[in-house]
């Protein structure tokens, strides 16, 4: 009996310790060190986070979380970079190739996002329609989601979409149709190309797309610096 009580108290202590980890308060299976990340990549190279600019040379990036003019009011990333798991980046490259024929290109607004950012976003904005719950983590933490819009390749100008990025409003939903015809067409063009290359919409946000089997990619809390300096 004594032994059982001892084991029980050790187990409770272990659970309590996990819950007290402020970087992973919900005890999710997150890889948070480069060592863990490198083991994962060796076991499954498809989980490697690749630099999108290496996979799509010249791709337009507008990483708003590297600046202060995002919904949090402070820069979240120290570098304006976009990383995605290799198959996700490859699919996006194929989509961009196809899109190029129509004179259009992608502008990437966000891609892989370390879990620490998801924790912080939820502190700033509690509505989990527009920011991922830290209890599950975001598909962005898995490097399998991308936020993006369309540009005209010749001018670099963005096509008009229903709202600005991260507008957190009903107008951002794919179900909102009280919009000028050109805006509806632009949103449909983005959706059409993304769906053709294995991505699916997230209904409340016209800019967010998840890749096929997105939840099969691991949750990560690896910083951009660690990825850039490996
Ligand atoms: Zn997103």
Polypeptide structure, described:
- The structure is a single chain.
- With 230 residues, this protein is of the alpha/beta class.
- The protein has a single domain, classed as Muramoyl-pentapeptide Carboxypeptidase, domain 2 (2-Layer Sandwich).
- The protein has seven helices and nine strands, in the order H-E-H-E-H-E-E-H-E-H-E-H-E-E-E-H.
- The protein has helices at 2-19, 34-43, 52-55, 86-100, 115-124, 181-196, 224-228; strands at residues 30-31, 49-51, 60-61, 83-85, 104-110, 145-152, 199-202, 205-211, 219-220.
- The strands form three sheets. Strands 3-5-6-8-7 form a five-stranded mixed beta sheet, with helices on one face. A two-stranded parallel sheet has the order 1-9.
- The protein is globular and about 50 Å long.
- The termini are far apart.
- It binds zinc ion.
- The site of zinc ion has 5 residues, from strand 6.
- Residues 110, 140, 145, 147, 208 line the site of zinc ion (ZN).
Give the arrangement of secondary structure elements:
Elements: H1 2-19, E1 30-31, H2 34-43, E2 49-51, H3 52-55, E3 60-61, E4 83-85, H4 86-100, E5 104-110, H5 115-124, E6 145-152, H6 181-196, E7 199-202, E8 205-211, E9 219-220, H7 224-228
Parallel strand pairs: 1-9, 3-5
Antiparallel strand pairs: 2-4, 5-6, 6-8, 7-8
Bound molecules: zinc ion.
Zinc ion (ZN) binds next to strand 6.
Q: What are the salient characteristics of this protein?
A:
Muramoyl-pentapeptide Carboxypeptidase, domain 2, 34% helix, 230 residues, globular, 9 strands, binds zinc ion, alpha/beta
